[in-house]
Structure formats: C-alpha cells, structure tokens
C-alpha cells in the first residue's frame, strides 16, 4: 500500500472528524502515504469500517470515539494515541459542525454555543494535548481545517465563519509559540467541497452548490481527497519550513 516515495512513511498521525468527507479521505490517503493513522469521530461504526478498509489494503489504522464538544473526550482520544504508539508525529484537526444557515440576527444563542464548542474550543483543547505529546518526541506538525468562509464576510453562516476566523488566529499563534519546540502548525481553508456538510447546507438552502460552483474559477467543487492532499504535504517533512500558514484550497474562489 505504501509508495517508495511516500510523504508520511513512519509517522503516527491523529485525524479528527475522520468518519466522513475530508477526514475519511485523509485517513485513506495518509495511510497510503505510509502513516499509522488513529481515526477519531463520534460515530464508531463508520470508523471501524474505515479501519478495516485501510488494514485490508495493508495500512495501519485504529479508531477511537471522540466528541468534539467534550474536552475530556478529546484529551482521552489523544491519550489513546499514546497508548497505541507511544508518540504523535502529526495531527489533522478536521472535525467540525455546520450551523443552521441564516442571517446574523436570527442565529440562536444555542447555535453560537455549539459553534464555539466544536469549531473553536475543540481545536484549542486538541492542539494543546497533541503538542504536549509531540514535545516528548521533539517535533511534530499540526494542520487545522478552517474554511474559505473565515477569510471574508459570510452572511449565511455568521457563527461558523466567526469561529473559523478565530481558529486561523489560534493556528498562527500556536505556530509562533511552538516553533522553538519543533512543532509546526498550519491551517487550510477549503472552499466548496463535495461533502455531507455541503449536502446539508444545500438541503437547507437550495441553490448553494450552484452558487459556489459559479464563484469558483476552476468551475467545480473540490473532491475531499484534493483537500486531504494539501494537509498531507503540510504534515510531511517536505513542508519543513512551512509554519503559521493558512493555505487556501478553494479553486481560486478566494482570489
């Protein structure tokens, strides 16, 4: 399964939001690129199926259930990585939740609370736990999934975009703070990507996919693997001088 010039050979990589979409694509890709992957999400069944698929193809994979809204659950998942492998080389903090689409003045307090807990605080908790484990090995790399919506006004998803913009700031701060310890931290900002999250948005607001496609210079939605490819490179030693970057993966939509 592993290629001779694989990006992630010998690395232990933790992936959140791994049961579907970009996270599942990353699990398959990172394993194919030589990583031992530990997959985390709330739902155990899709994780187990993915682990079986990767192992059948000759890869190394394990699963752990984790709730991004639960700080103890996140820390326990990172502890499980240590139990399995004794170290952590890379982390792809990809898990997220969409808000109920609607304008700023109709976004509920409850929606804001969920967005804060899952799309911002969870990354803070995960990153600090991941970095603590990485320090024991002397180095590591973290990639956070943000959104094109973090780079500009987002009237349809105001709370989601606000938390993702805060995540960009946190990513940059962590990169500067942890660079002396050999830990690189970067973010990616996908544009329209063919995932279940976009499907849910389309169901709530018909026409979203057409509008996203029309506003993308490359003229199409991204496939989840295309986003995962960028994360794989950022986690690899080939990106050894890249930290504090927020990398667009949006087909030119943010240009």
Outline the structure in words.
- The chain has a seven-stranded parallel sheet with strand order 3-2-1-4-5-6-7, with helices on both faces.
- The chain has a single domain (12-248), classed as NAD(P)-binding Rossmann-like Domain (Rossmann fold).
- The mean pLDDT is 94.
- The longest helix is centred in the middle third of the chain and has 29 residues, at 109-137.
- It is an alpha/beta fold and 255 residues long.
- It has helices at 21-32, 44-56, 71-85, 109-137, 158-178, 196-204, 208-214, 224-235; strands spanning 12-16, 36-41, 60-65, 90-93, 140-145, 183-190, 246-249.
Keywords:
single chain, 255 residues, 8 helices, 46% helix, globular
What is the string of helix and strand elements?
Answer: EHEHEHEHEHEHHHE
Total DSSP E strands: 7
Total of domains: 1
Strand content: 15-25%
User: Helix proportion of residues, in percent?
Assistant: 40-55%
The biggest beta sheet reads: 7 strands, parallel
Secondary-structure arrangement, i.e. CATH architecture: 3-Layer(aba) Sandwich
Mean pLDDT: 94
Relevant CATH superfamily:
NAD(P)-binding Rossmann-like Domain
Outline the low-pLDDT stretches: none
Distance between the termini: 37 Å
**Strand order within the widest beta sheet:** 3-2-1-4-5-6-7
What is the number of helices?
8
Would you state the CATH class? Answer: Alpha Beta
């Amino acid at each position: 399964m592993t290629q001779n010039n694989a990006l992630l050979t010998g690395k232990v990589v933790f992936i959140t939001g791994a049961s579907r979409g970009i996270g599942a694509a990353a699990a398959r890709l990172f394993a194919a690129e030589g990583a031992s992957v530990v997959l985390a999400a709330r739902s155990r069944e899709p994780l187990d199926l993915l682990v079986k698929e990767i192992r059948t193809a000759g890869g190394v994979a394990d699963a752990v259930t984790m709730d991004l809204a639960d700080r103890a659950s996140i820390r326990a998942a990172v502890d499980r990585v240590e139990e399995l492998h004794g170290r952590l080389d890379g982390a792809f903090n990809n898990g997220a939740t969409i808000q109920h689409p609607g304008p700023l003045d109709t976004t509920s307090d409850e929606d804001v609370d969920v967005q804060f807990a899952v799309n911002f605080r969870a990354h803070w908790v995960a990153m600090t736990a991941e970095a603590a484990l990485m320090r024991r090995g002397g180095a590591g790399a973290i990639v956070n999934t943000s959104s094109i919506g973090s780079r500009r006004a987002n009237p349809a998803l105001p709370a989601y975009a606000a938390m993702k913009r805060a995540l960009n700031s946190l990513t940059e701060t962590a990169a500067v703070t942890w660079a002396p310890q050999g830990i690189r931290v970067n973010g990616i900002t996908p544009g329209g990507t063919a995932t279940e999250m976009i499907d849910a948005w389309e169901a709530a607001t018909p026409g979203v996919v057409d509008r996203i496609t029309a506003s993308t210079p490359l003229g199409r939605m991204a496939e989840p693997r295309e986003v995962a490819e960028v994360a794989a490179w950022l986690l690899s030693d080939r990106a050894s001088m890249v930290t504090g970057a927020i990398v667009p993966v949006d087909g030119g939509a943010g240009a």
